[in-house]
Amino acid sequence: MSADLFSIFIIAIFIENFVLNQILGICPFVGVSNRVDSAVGMGLAVTFVMVLAGVVTWSIQNLFLAPFHLEYLQTLSFILVIASLVQFVEMVIRKTVPSLYQALGVYLPLITTNCAVLGVALLNVRKGYGLVESAVNSLGGGLGFFFALLLMAGIRERLEVAEVPVAMRGAPITFITAGLLAIAFYGFAGLA
Amino acid sequence: MNDLIQTGKYLLIISAIAGLLLAFTEMVTAPRIAENNRLVLEKARREVLPGAERFDTLDLATTDDAGHPATRSLSLGFDAQGKFLGTVQTVSPKGYGGPIDIVLGLKPDGAVSGVKIQSMRETPGLGTKLAEGFLDKFLEVARAGHPVKFFVKKDGGDIDAITAATISSRAFCKGIRDGIKVVQEGQTLIQQRAAAPGATPLPGPATTPVAPSPAPAPAPAPVVPPAPSVPPAPPADPESPPPAPTVAPEPPAPPLPPAIPQGGGQ
Amino acid sequence: MNTKELTKGIWAENPIFVIMLGCCPALAVSTSLANAFGMGIAATFVLLGSNLIISLIRASVPDKIRIPVYIVVIATFVTMIDKFMAAFTPALSASLGIFIPLIVVNCIILGRAEAFANKNTPQDSILDAIGMGLGFTIALAMIAVFREVLGDGKFFGIPVPLIKDDPCLLMIMAPGGFFVFGLLMAWKKHLAAGGAK
Predict the structure, then answer these.
(1) What per-residue string of b and e applies to C96-128 under the rule 16 or more CB within 10 Å gives b?
(2) Is B75 helix (H, G, I), strand (E, B) or coil?
């Protein structure tokens, strides 16, 4: 059992990395990866929301939607839950840990439209995970996103001083770099 | 406060309209989606078990990879005359990008009658080649030889792995072995069910577990010449005593041929 | 008839290459032309529906709950197209997988609701939706042409001579998506820069 959870965790971080393998959450990946400190903030915020969303959406699916055969409300209810969760987290952090809010505040509203968060919720259901598995998969997914973002930010800080052809500057070179990173991540394939 | 009630009312109305629309959509589409799924399954079943006209379901208790009890749903296929043709099941070994759903047809003697890949999330093009040339080659080997070792050649088996897609190929072989194991374990129950609906009795006494191909051939021993119609009942599975209730989960370790280092997993 | 609203989305304000919204589906489902068009049509349908409804109700929506209302509208259309595709085009629906429900978080849709439909008439909003939807579809198809031909050796499912036996598989895997997208974006940027001079 614990071995299963561990392998779910490892697969979520490295093999089925949301950004580099599943291609989810590209917008924030490109948008917020220009500096390492903002990447850390965004990565933490996403991981946190993702775990919460994974647990809450699992509960909604299994305690409410499935028993009443309301699966057709899945997309609607999941996205509403994620949106309100993000608002709620923002409020709680602002009231309780102002310093953390200072660091994460700007990133939180962006998370609602991060497709990796809704993606993890939908994938948990499609893969038939239980509560604990969902939580572990969400945590792994979030950390994987964090990891990819951090790597990218580190590379981009160096790219700034590199001589990139004019047309390739900015987003294009970021995508090429992401492609190379994704190839590197295929090396993790046999890990699980 | 009035403002709050106003917004609340608005949200309520919008959500109610949305809910109604979706319920209507569901009403229109649900039967069709169910029908689509059924058709896909039905088509796959007929494809892997040629000649079958009617299917019965039978739930067998087995164990998953971690040794936990699990149920596997089998379909027993009969032709128009009610003759038992074999079993169909879906096996879902873990491939490179998640489970590969394989519909596997097995003849009563345990030989593979057909395989079809139902869905998978393998790297498109790479693992997806499983669906193309690999399957034909696989079927050729599976139908020709008795007993076939369902492992990729790299692991000492008979199956050609796809170049650069060893993980997918290994997963595929593991799925086939799992499926065969389930049928092997459930042999008695299957025979009972197969005989029950007025089917012609099968060759061979119902209690003898018919050991299909990959049954532990402890050494690369010479192949036992196949008996007529009944498969080479090679070293009869030591841990499934004939009358044993197939429901008993069997310890997962022993039945694997010793030749395989990592059991073809990931 | 304001044709500017229609054409801007196709090139000048192409949602993918210029505004860079909705990149995830652009990369994830652009492995074949069939997928690209399927996704494009689904997203256009949602965009049309949400732009129309939102521009109709914009005056009456309390400002505070604007975003949640938009999300409900969008999610409703997404679920509808999701179910209808599963019912009538099961193969396409299976190959697009979770990217259909994920249209809900496609930034293009919410972005257009907030930036355009919220402020414009239903007519202009429809034109905007068609334009943006077309732009999205064209961008997806452009990426998909390269990936399907080079990576799978096929064009719309038809084998292409010379490549079909030994395609460069990397192109239909995730890295290929990143590469093609990056290069196309650079090309668009290059053209735009040249035109400005």
Answers:
(1) bbbbbbbbbbbbbbbbbbeebbbebeeebbbbb
(2) strand
CA–CA separation, C75 and C94 (whole Å): 19
Please answer yes or no on whether B22 and C169 come within 8 Å at the CB atom.
Answer: no
ipTM of the modeled complex? 0.85
The Cα–Cα gap between B9 and B7 comes to 5
Q: Name which of A76, A82, A84, A90 to mutate to probe chain C: the one with the most chain C Cβ atoms within 10 A of its Cβ.
A: A76
Residue A86 carries which side chain, given as an amino acid letter?
V
Task: Determine, for residues C86 and B33 on separate chains, whether the beta-carbon distance falls below 8 Å.
Answer: yes
Q: How far is CA A84 from the centre of its chain?
A: 17
Q: Where are the domains of chain B?
A: 49-206+228-266
pLDDT in tens, chain C (197 residues): 567 777 887 777 787 777 777 777 888 888 889 989 999 999 999 999 999 999 998 888 888 788 888 989 999 999 999 999 999 988 888 888 888 898 888 878 888 888 889 888 999 999 999 999 999 999 999 999 999 888 878 888 888 887 777 778 788 888 888 999 999 988 888 887 775 44
Could you tell me if C4 lies within 8 Å of chain B, comparing CB atoms?
A: no
Q: Supply the Cα-derived Rg of chain A in whole angstroms.
A: 17
Neighbours of chain C (3+ CB pairs under 8 A): A, B
With CA atoms as reference, report the closest residue to A121 among A72, A75, A64, A66: A75
A·C CB contacts under 8 A: 120
Using DSSP's 3-state secondary structure scheme, residue B184 falls into helix
